[in-house]
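Notebook p. 47: complex prediction with glutamine.
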Amino acid sequence: MSPTFLNSPRRILFLDAYDSFSNNIVALIEQNTDAKVTKASIDDTRFSNSKSLVNLTFAEYAQDFDAVVAGPGPGWAGCDKDVGVMKELWKLRDEEILPVLGICLGFQSLCLAFGAQIERLVEPKHGIVTAVLHKGQSIFRNVEKLQTTQYHSLQVKLGHPIQTNRAVRYPAQLWEPTEMCPQLEPMAWDFDSERNGAVLMGVKHIQKPFWGVQFHPESICTNEEGSHIIRNWWEDAQSWKRKRIFSHDARKTTLSPSQLRPMTFHDFRRDLGFYAESDTKKKPMRKGVAETEFLAKERDGLLPDELASLLAYGDDQTLPYLPSTVVHCATTGSGRLTVEDVCELLEIPRHEAIVLQSGLQENLVPMAVGTGRYSIIGLVIPEETLRLHYYAGSRIMQLRDGYDEVHTQWKVTDPWPYLRKAMNTLQPTTPPRTATWAPFWGGFMGYASYEAGLETIDVPVADSADHPDICFAYITRSIVFDHQVKKIYVQSIRGPNDFDWVEETQELIYNAVDAKSRESTPTSTPMPKPDPFEKFGPMYRYIDSCTQDFANREGYCEQVRSCQEAIADGQSYELCLTHQNEIRARKPTACRLSKAEDCQHSWNLYKRLAGQNPAPFSAYMRMHNVHILSSSPERYISWSRSQAAQCRPIKGTVQKKPGVTAAQAHAILSSSKERAENLMIVDLTRHQLHGVYGSENVRVSQLMEVEEYETVWQLVTVVDAVPPGVYKPSTPELWEDPADGSSGLVTRTSVPDLGFQAFVESLPPGSMTGAPKKRSCELLQEQERRVKRGIYSGVLGYLDVGGGGDFSVVIRTAIKVDPTSYYSSLTAPKEGTTFATTSPSTSTQTEDIWRIPAGGAVTSQSTPEGEYEEMLAKVNSTARAFTHLPPPPPKQKKPRVELINPDHPDYEALWNETLRGEDGAEIDVGTTDVETVLRLLQETVQRTLEQGIGILDEEDLNEEED
Ligand SMILES: C=C(O[C@@H]1C=C(C(=O)O)C=C[C@H]1O)C(=O)O
Ligand SMILES: NC(=O)CC[C@H](N)C(=O)O
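Predicted complex, structure tokens below:
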């Protein structure tokens, strides 16, 4: 036929039923067809609302496409709200009909339309990978052994003998339509679960161009054959279309004349794909952060560029004129100086402050490849540092001055364009003169709460003013540690004349490094040594006064069961249930009287936590009325100045306790339950990044690897994304390095701010919600009795003026919120929206309330008891900082160098000794199994004992050993 037909751009409509995997499907289709995919929601107002401007029916709208993919989603095919316009696909009149591929919910909707029933599975399948038997025809032709990921609780019943009697009379009967559904030809079956019996995995309509699959071809764990099926479907869809266009039969009418739609010259051309998407329909579907949405001036408030200008140039009155054009930077080696040392040197603990700290191993090197390379101290300059607050629900935004007084307060429809504009405007014109790997030059440091995240996916939240939902300080002076190369950057973007401060501070730090290195006994570890006098000090009494109020076992187990019921009903695939645990303590008198003492006290608690529970994303934040002590192991998202992004979702937790060996932990984490939990979040994360970075630019660089922390083992996946057309690094180390270094500005201007967009569009973090995200969040609000999660479950980190960013997920974190009456400048937004959520209690004048929320992902395979124990393990990893005696050290610890006598004259030599294996080759302690390391350590120690350096005795050794 005409080659023009074959060469013209093809278009596929993807109908999104609010799933969290949709963009992976779009990517899979774009990778395996020559078509461009357009996404529309099942309830898109353009065709569901008769009053809409464009006012198309769905059938009319669909005519612009060559084919449709009806996607997965929560709920039931029989429920109008769950499928929206999807159900109309199957009813299109002959002349309107389009080839359709239904996936999961879309497949169920197709089958329902042609007589099938939908029922619950006995055993829901979420994130489970199984082999599927297929007919080898139609969209399964030439498909080999098919491994598929499944995400479903419901199944299609055709009344087939394999379903009703668990048997067929002859093998070929498996592929025959049933009396109940004569138009549906079975194409694939799953025999994986004894309890479920045979589950239908694919069908084809015998006349119409409709195909469907129950499994998820787009999942990272479906094998290559998933792509093959898409290519087959696309071929079939196109050949059906070709046949229809050029066959007179297709237009032959069995319809009444009034139902006939005349075909014009243009209709034929449209069918042949001559026209690109018409302009009227180009309106973006996705709720994004496009600036155009915010051009309407928020009356009495600020526009994004006005805010940006105030931040940079002040207002000639209370806000300073400090244009961020120049990045001043000076460097020095860090020697044995720790982040804590520098904070204390600069008296940071006595004021408001933000410190993002990477927990280190005891020899001061990063804990793992890929995270924990940098620590960042943001200096909050008293009476100067500007802040941005945002309150969810009431949607009030505030610009606050250096005294934490409200400078401007206004209502916004969306806070994020303000931050985006500010980041773009504050971009310096003169990058640092020194070569720098520092990922942060200056910019915003702070957090966004879970509720701020909920608003980005249109889940309503109540007004509440107990603490800001977004709280960022505009940091102009900062200290960055590069732990890998042991370097400290002192930096300022505080106007053109701030180099003096940089030099003075560098000098101060240099002298401290020098002084510390001259101390005869180097501090071998960043962990604070237990203070022998603590017993008589205020910290002892504070800890003594602590009482715990943690989730109660029965209540929590009941909530787990209730989550599992929602999953069994097909409403969610995985739900991350959490509880707001609390620790109450008597507020020390000094803290009541002095804000500086109060800050110092929180800092001391933070040091206990960071020492006991080192984590790559530890953080201390003391701003406004909020105290945050975090030991998070989880990266939400980071992106470099050249916009290469990385997410590190964690799912799967094994608690360290007596009797659980590393090998057992690995075994547990390789189980189908833990892998399923992780897989769902991996696919969700891919979906989010695909949505921003496009189909070709997302990859999973580490799939489900076990990482060891102080009290738990975790299953961690790494998903990377790069801007279209950019060099894609091949190793995790390369992804970690800011490839642009100081030249960031050059690359920055040439790429859009994809990282920031992915950051906003991925809120709230998927590992804290479950999938599909929106429905899961709505369900969790009910399960968690509408108690606000607040800062926990949100994200904390920085936005760099050079264009990068890095945020952790706020977990394993203690949070204290002081009563807002302390901070009277806050104008509390009015109560009284119809949608009520409650805020957990805040501290009082005499009592501190530390919230240490914790939770875990509930799946159909969870046990309520197991989930409760997991939640307790997580809360305890943080709550230990509030107890007197840390629990006995977990077994299989990494070697501790303090076991060696530091006063011995040969100590320095020993310090440099590396562990060697039998063959004399050096051993990488980080990657060698714990048993081997311990044995080698013991041998080394034995040698040093013989040389009289060690202070270990037999008992110590045995203790380490067993
Ligand atoms: C909910 C928490 O952690 C989340 C849940 C995890 C899990 O279910 O295994 C692991 C890490 C986090 O994403 C928590 O720490 O409170
Ligand atoms: N992934 C899906 O589309 C799931 C469909 C349906 N909600 C089920 O659970 O079976």
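Notes: Residues 576, 578, 634, 650-653, 767-768, 809, 811-812, 854-857, 874 surround ISJ (ligand 1) (CB under 6 Å). The mean pLDDT is 84.
Next step: compare against the earlier run before touching the bench.
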